[in-house]
Amino acid sequence: MIQSIKYLLVALLTTALTILYLDQYAPIIVEVPEKTSQRMPIEFSKEIQKKQIHKIEKKAKNVILLIGDGMGLNQVTAYRIAKGGPNFLTAFDKFPFTGLVKTHSFDNLITDSAASATAYSSGIKTKNRYLGVDGNGDDVELITEILLRKGFVTGLVATSEITHATPAAFAIHNISRYNTDEIAKSMYESKNHILMGGGKDFFMPESNGGQRKDEINLVDLIKNGNIYIDSKKALMSFKGEAKKRIFGLFAKEGLTRSESEPSLLDMFKFTLDQSKKMVDQNRCSGFFIMAEGSQIDWAGHENDFDYQFEEMDEFHDVVGHALEFVKFRDDTLLIVLSDHETGGLLIEMDELRNKPSSSMIVSWNTALEEGTHTGAMIPAYSYGPGAINFTGVIDNTDVFFSLKEAIGINELADKECKLND
To answer: CB-based contacts of 95: which residues, under 8 Å, 6+ apart?
Structure first.
């Protein structure tokens, strides 16, 4: 009996010491604390105070827009600390211009990705769930549609389904982000040159193992006259000429990080390389690439910092690669931003705040295991011609007009970028 009590006491003491040790020395401790909230009435004016845009003399021939879905300031800060400590320099820290972006949608303080990406792509505030349409459901002209008319090569890349809210808002028009059959068909019918991500199921009918209820096999249509790539191996070994549209569909829905799937960096490098070739070989005006780190947001919804760190790490590699690319050119504008913050991520003090820090406590502050978007402003980083217009506090609609000024769209004649297929 005495021996059993001794074992129990040792076990309890060991457990207590383990908890104390982890609390003081573990590199990251994640908590979902209780929180208080207060509802406050507000004035929600629909009138937007537009940013005074600087006139850009040296225009951008190319634009790279990188979107870290759900990435707020604290996601960047927590990533920096977890990656190499508070004094570590990430690629985000190496941009000469930074700003803050207001994210509210047409009639809601908290935007979703559809409304936010539509603001970026069209300069128009719209309702949550709406893609490429205004608050009344009427089509608005997208930056990709304008650039295609001016002879540009356009490419969209995502680690979600390519039909997901952010990439779709740069390509199609629909009153619901959930109309996946219609969205996939519209993505196929759009004239964008390169589309890469997951979502193969939405391009294939149910009879072929997909999810389309209309039985239209868009994959077969893609293969008839376009280039279709469905694996990392095929992407990395691609030797074709830049003379046809390219569709890369690498997962049934969002990318699952299997060995057969490319990373965001793989897809971005490919799209960048092919876009340059398309421009050079077909005498096009320039290129526009939107690449999204989609699953930073998904990790925030799941209150999973380990998952988010991996997604941030991948997105960071893309940002670093893009930054190195533009540093050696004077004709390419690079913008890195988010569409909204997800999860209410905080970096908090522990009980030992008066002693040297040996851990980081991060907490999620919206909902347990189903975190929601917040209304926090998000960071913007920019480099290249027109970067000055992405500084200060801006509205998400200002991004569209600053892009137009950087490229000088109003000064460009219409031109067809026709691939020699």
So the answer is: 323, 336, 381, 382, 383
> How many other CB atoms sit within 10 Å of the CB of residue 198?
24
The tokens of 139 are what?
């089509």
**Please, are residues 112 and 372 in contact by the beta-carbon 8 Å criterion?**
no
Element (DSSP H or E) covering residue 274? helix 264-282
* Radius of gyration of the chain from its Cα atoms, rounded to whole angstroms: 23
Strands (E), 230-356: 246-249, 286-293, 332-337, 341-342, 346-348
pTM above 0.85, yes or no: yes
What do you get for the CA distance between the two ends of the chain, in Å?
Answer: 86
The per-residue pLDDT string of the chain (421 residues; one tens digit each, 9 = 90 and over) reads 566 565 566 556 655 554 444 444 445 666 666 677 888 888 888 788 888 999 999 999 999 999 999 999 999 999 999 999 999 999 999 999 999 999 999 999 999 999 999 999 999 999 999 999 999 999 999 999 999 999 999 999 999 999 999 999 999 999 999 999 999 999 999 999 999 999 999 999 999 999 999 989 999 999 999 999 999 999 999 998 888 999 999 999 999 999 999 999 999 999 999 999 999 999 999 999 999 999 999 999 999 999 999 999 999 999 999 999 999 999 999 999 999 999 999 998 776 667 777 889 999 999 888 899 999 999 999 999 999 999 999 999 999 999 999 999 999 999 999 886 5
Q: What CATH code is assigned to 61-411?
A: 3.40.720.10
Q: Is the dihedral of CA 344, 135, 181, 122 positive or negative?
A: negative
- Considering 113, 190, 275, 402, which one is annotated as catalytic? 113
Reduce the DSSP state of residue 97 to 3 states and report it: strand
Question: Which of 77, 115, 420 shows the shortest CA–CA distance to 278?
Answer: 420
Beta carbons within 8 Å of 135's beta carbon, 6+ residues apart: 106, 107, 125, 126, 127
Q: Where are the alpha helices (DSSP H) in 131-215?
A: 143-149, 165-169, 180-189
Q: How far apart are CA 148 and CA 288, in angstroms?
A: 9
Region of 5 (left: φ > 0; alpha: ψ -120 to 50; beta: rest) is alpha
Residue 181 dihedral angles phi and psi, to the nearest 5°: -60, -50
Residue 121 bears catalytic tag: no
Query: Residue 140 phi/psi, 5° resolution?
Result: -120, 155
